[in-house]
Amino acid sequence: MQVTGAVRWVLRFEGLGLLGLCLLGYARLGQGWGQFALWFLVPDLALIAYLAGPRLGAWAYNLTHALVGPVVVLGIGLALAAPGALAVGLIWAAHIGFDRMLGYGLKYGQGFRFTHLGVIGRDKPSQPG
To answer: What are phi and psi of 118, to 5 degrees?
Structure first.
């Protein structure tokens, strides 16, 4: 099923909200924006797994683009009062928010273009069943 209309915009707005909240939190943490820029795109290294096929690519992408990972890292950072872990968790979650804002959702094994937010790309084929 393709996500359309108001629901699609609500989901993208949630991504924008997550990105904004993470940027605010990171600014308050005071770790430096060079570090933020350096690590912001690291989760996209999972795209390399698509070279081994769409199923493995989707699995690797979803592993690095689900909010469970950054939430665990943030929880550890809070529990241990570890600013480094907090920084990593905020950067990671900001990346996910940015992707969701742009419409890049978690992937299905049929290929990179098939996401939980709908099919992405210019010539959108029908959604996998």
So the answer is: 120, 175
Residue 107 CB burial class (10 angstroms; 0-12, 13-18, ≥19): buried
Give the HSE-up count for residue 66: Cα atoms under 13 Å, Cβ half-sphere: 11
DSSP 3-state percent helix, strand, coil across the chain (nearest 5): 70, 5, 25
DSSP state of 47: G
Mean pLDDT over residues 76-98, rounded? 98
CB-CB neighbours of 119 under 10 Å: 20
Instruction: Give the pLDDT confidence score for residue 35 in this predicted structure.
Output: 95
Give the CA count within 13 Å in the CB-facing half-sphere of 45: 7
- DSSP string of 75-114? HHHHHHT-HHHHHHHHHHHHHHHHHHHHT--PEETTEEEE
Buried b (16+ CB within 10 A) or exposed e, 38-52: eeeeebeebeebbee
Q: For residues 115 and 100, what is the distance between their CA atoms, to the nearest angstrom?
A: 10
Tell me the pTM: 0.90
Using a 10 angstrom Cβ sphere, with 0-12 exposed, 13-18 middle and 19 or more buried, the burial of residue 32 is: exposed
